[in-house]
Please model this.
Amino acid sequence: MANVPPGVPCWADLATADLAAAKRFYTELFGWTGRVTPQPEAGGYTTFLLDGLAAAGIGPPATPEQVPIWSTYVATDDPELVATRVEAAGGQVVVPPLQIFDQGRMAVFADPAGATFSVWQPMEMRGAEVFNTPGAMSWTELVTPDPEGAKTFYELVFGWQPEDHSTDPVTYTGWRCGDQVVAGMMPPIGDGFSAGLPAYWSVYFAVADADAAAVRATELGGDVLVPPMDAPAGRTAALRDPQGALFWIVTLRPGGSASF
Model:
């Protein structure tokens, strides 16, 4: 499998203090196995595998007070250039570009509304090796109170072109990178769980049956924040793992992609 092109989301990982409990939850929910990074300084960072292919990651939080969170990584061939563009566009460099062993180079940023996102420059680790199949990442989405500001910011940073779609009850935006719609954006819609939160990026994982997966998540100690519902991409639900990290699941419509 070739590297994901620059400007396209290529990886997602979870930062959480209780790695053992989170691993139990996600391996039971998605059928993942784990491959632990051997270097002690990696803090037990684990790559989740789906049928032997890299699907997502999990590691300790950067600081003790960090809440459990799933992070989206966008592929790049120049993290320093992205950092320059982020600052020029009014965003913030949270973690400057740094090298992760021989695996790749990363950086963490925040957009002007507070949504954090990361970039990944592949070396030995290319990013996810499987997408749009049950147990794999299928979509990533920005929820922000300032969609117009986000359109300007992400176009400057990644060259993304926004495409608005009228959906009930809000306007949904697809981010186009070249000939591919690679991510989405929407304003908060009063789901309750997001009240008072800053803007944030959320990650969707494909499942064979969203209703059954939501039930299974609760059996494993998680919570259903938005019950399964039909959406343009398929049947979706918002879940929270036992440590508090938010993520979405989606049963994809025929065609195998969560693009709205």
Remarks:
- The CA atoms of residues 1 and 53 lie 11 Å apart.
- The first strand starts at residue 9 and ends at 15.
- The chain has four helices and 16 strands.
